[in-house]
Amino acid sequence: MDGMVEENGTSGAAGVADPLSSAGSSAGGAPHVVVTSIVQLTLPTQAPSAQVQSVIQPNQQSVIQTASNIQPVQLPKGNVILVTKPSSVIHTTQGTLQTLQIKPEPNTILSAQGQSCSDDSCSDDESPKRKYREMLTRRPSYRKILNDLGGAEIAENRMGTKGLENEVSLSSLSFAPVIPADSGLHTLAVSGTAGGGAIVQYANQDGQFYVPGPILEDQTRKRELRLLKNREAARECRRKKKEYIKCLENRVAVLENQNKALIDELKSLKELYCQQKTE
DNA sequence: AACACATAGCGTCAGGGCGG
DNA sequence: CCGCCCTGACGCTATGTGTT
After folding, report:
1. Distance (Å, rounded) from C-alpha A132 to C-alpha A128?
2. Alpha-carbon distance A124 to A121, whole Å?
3. CA at A92, C1' at B12: how many angstroms apart?
4. Which residue's C-alpha is at the least distance from the C1' of C4?
5. Does strand B come within 7 Å of the CB of A268?
6. A94: Cβ–Cβ under 8 A, 6 or more apart, which residues?
7. Does the reported pTM lie above 0.90?
8. Can you list the residues of chain A whose pLDDT is less than 70?
9. Which helix (DSSP H) or strand (DSSP E) does residue A105 occupy?
10. Backbone phi, then psi, for A70, in 5-degree steps?
């Protein structure tokens, strides 16, 4: 699909359903939370009505239709769409019909390929009970958030390269195993092997070489593997955290825009009302 | 240029959560 | 219960920026 979905015009940052906001909107105590998602649509350049503009209130008649009642529309220029109805489909008629399928989760957000981007509570593979429990007790991991952002593809790609990286780092790894301080050992060399086995040579204080017993070697290898994995995990975690923060910032911007639009609308309606009143 | 400070990124550890 | 994963916290290093 050619259409792009953006938040606040930031390319690639499909909308975010902030899990925190889910919690916030459930302040009344009701565990079932429906979060309104806001997206900005940028349609392909060949479409004159390239940008969608209008604030569509939940449960009001609008150009956004549910799947059961699809209605092709010409989208006016603009930017903010509220999508609250499950199974919603956005249609544009510009030459070829373009359809953006929105997943049925209440807080779904569009993404470029029509994949959805929803918050933690919407994962398919989780029971409602568990979702509820997680929502109450635990902030979703950045991995989950990333997946929900529709970045699964990216994540998978990264996993691919990551696997490669892992392979490389494991096979070409040169590290210094940790040796108990009182062991009297000094590491001389550790050469990684493609098979994952490291050949470790030690020297005692007289400079004599020998390979220590399999237990120490095994412990050392396990530790190095753990450190390596944790290193990668930390890197990944930071990356996701950054992405998450970026998405939150985008969302703030979108909400600010929406707020501004609503204020303007209110203002003009007030003026209209006063005008009619005086007549 | 030298220095101080701020910021970003990294590696490691610790601890909690989760699946098997 | 154990092993693994995720992530906050901490310390370290590199880089950028403003000041002297």
Report:
1. 6
2. 9
3. 52
4. A226
5. no
6. A43, A46, A47, A48, A49
7. no
8. 1-214
9. none
10. -75, 135
